Amino acid sequence: MAAAGRLARGHHGAEARDEVPRELVDLREVVAEAGAPEQGLAQVLAPAEVRRQRLDAHLSSIRDLEREVGAAPTTCARPEAPGGDLPASPERVQIMLRLVATALRCDLTRFASFALNNGIDSSPLPWLGLSGGHHDLSHADDHDTIVRIVRYEMEQVAYLLALLKAAPEGDGTALDNSLIFVSSEVSDGATHSLDDMPVLVAGRAAGCVRPGTHLRFPDQTPISNLYLTLLNLAGVTTPAFGLDGTTLLDGLAS
Predict the structure, then answer these.
(1) d(CA 80, CA 82)
(2) Angle CA(155)–CA(119)–CA(240) in degrees, nearest 5?
(3) Highest mean pLDDT among 25-29, 116-120, 134-138, 166-170
(4) pLDDT band of 21, cuts 50, 70, 90
(5) pTM recorded for the entire structure
(6) Lowest mean pLDDT among 29-33, 143-147, 170-174
(7) What count of other Cβ atoms lies within 10 Å of the Cβ of residue 97?
């Protein structure tokens, strides 16, 4: 709810933003205010095709999120504080990923981060038929169960990538113009090993990244070198990252 409200708030005037509680924005009001694609903001932005695409996608996403989240009361009011965390579920995860995709493809932000849980979370995963959580199960010597969990997590990554790939942007897609890093806190949950870290890099960074490759680097290569490389590919020119990130990695740049 809060994330959906922050995405929508940019369409209100300054006076309206001051009056609307931060916790809640009426998404129906946002859609009505923006109007049909040939009116209002879209009419002003019509000469810029990419911006028009972003606006159309943003309005469509607001309508979808309104239905999905059920976050559109007829008036703005400060909601009661929830009694606890909202229950985790695949539906909740994918709602959040749709918000991330909307923010990126509509240029409401240039950066987003998302984590399914923290490293010691042991919440049950009933949708996978598991009464235990990822952390505890990683110490239970049950390889097949961990594979099921990781497969589910990677399916959520694929879902986000598909959303970005389906969003036109200029001559390509939002995915083409993005650079996405996916990994874990450790390479092995049972031993907490940091060796041979599995990493997925997606997107083309507007043509700066060579896709469709599998790269393996020598042992003891600092992962900070990867962070340094990604920063430079994303247009942030810097000579170092952290204590160990001092060398750009070969094979990623197109």
Answers:
(1) 6
(2) 90
(3) 166-170
(4) very low
(5) 0.70
(6) 29-33
(7) 20
* Chain centroid offset of residue 88 CA: 17
Residue range 38-45: mean pLDDT, rounded:
48
Amino acid at 193: S
Residue 87, judged by CB atoms within 10 A of its CB (0-12, 13-18, 19+), counts as: exposed
- pLDDT mean over 158-171: 93
**Spatial distance between the Cα atoms of 45 and 39, rounded to a whole number of angstroms:** 10
Distance spanning both ends of the chain, measured CA to CA: 39
Q: How many CB atoms lie within 10 A of CB 6?
A: 16
* Domain layout of the chain by residue ranges: 1-77, 84-170
Cα separation of 201 and 210, whole Å? 10
Instruction: Please give the backbone phi and psi of residue 149, each rounded to the nearest 5 degrees, phi first.
Output: -65, -45
d(C-alpha 254, C-alpha 238), whole Å: 19
Q: Which two tokens stand for residue 211?
A: 């896709």
Kindly calculate the radius of gyration of the chain based on its CA atoms and give it in whole angstroms: 21
| Contact between 195 and 222 (Cβ < 8 Å) | no
Cβ–Cβ < 8 Å for 101, 57? no
- Nearest 5°: CA angle at 84, between 81 and 88? 125
